[in-house]
Amino acid sequence: MEQKFEYTYSAKEKSELEKIRKKYTPKTSEESKLEQIKRLDKSVESSAMTKALIVGIIGSLILGVGMCCTMVWTDFFVLGIIVGIIGILVCTLAYPVYKRSLDQKRAVVGAQILKLSDEISGEL
After folding, report:
1. Which end of the chain has less neighbouring CB within 10 Å, N or C?
2. Residue 1 falls within a domain, yes or no?
3. Residues near 90 by Cβ (< 8 Å), separated by ≥ 6?
4. pTM value?
5. What per-residue confidence (pLDDT) applies to 7?
6. 8 Å CB contact between 66 and 84
């Protein structure tokens, strides 16, 4: 009696296998042009988002102090309203900070991204 071992796997299993294999293969020091473009684009967006989040969190904290002044420490009611309004104003600055930071960073990195994308287009 002859014993045979057969094993077949699906495309889904193959892609999962490739994903695991990719983790263990040694990384090359040179990244592709597409990976460079993705990394540059991600750095532009993440730095702008970080700045906007910092401004928004600071504004929220100031607003919270103003609310405490009006609700908990009732002797500081008027001061609490003023501090709360300042907190709201700081919160509203989060989006303009994001937009300005994004535009500035895009101006700096834009030429490099366009050059890399032109090189990729030329290769295709």
Report:
1. N
2. no
3. 55, 58, 59, 62, 63
4. 0.68
5. 67
6. yes
| pLDDT given for residue 19 in this prediction | 85
> For 47-102, how does the pLDDT look when each residue is reduced to its tens digit (9 = 90+)?
999 999 999 999 999 999 999 999 998 899 999 999 999 999 999 999 999 999 99
Identify whether 2 is part of a domain: no
Say if residues 65 and 83 touch (Cβ distance below 8 Å): yes
Name the residue range of residue 39's domain: 32-123
